[in-house]
Amino acid sequence: MRCTISQARTQLGELVTLTQDPRAVIVLTRYGKPLAALVSMTEAERIWDLQDDELVGHKHPLSGLRGW
For the chain, what is the radius of gyration of the CA atoms? Predict the structure, then answer.
């Protein structure tokens, strides 16, 4: 779903409710160009884990330690 920044200002509560679904992504636009995205915390944590995998190494499946 796409939403302009001005629409997001007036509908922020509703947009946050929509993003509680981990599959939902709301792209915020200005003048038709994408600037940012609203995602669920589940999706944000998944993205951060992927970044950590690239920087530090994968998590050990049993201990959860990175960079083994």
Answer: 16
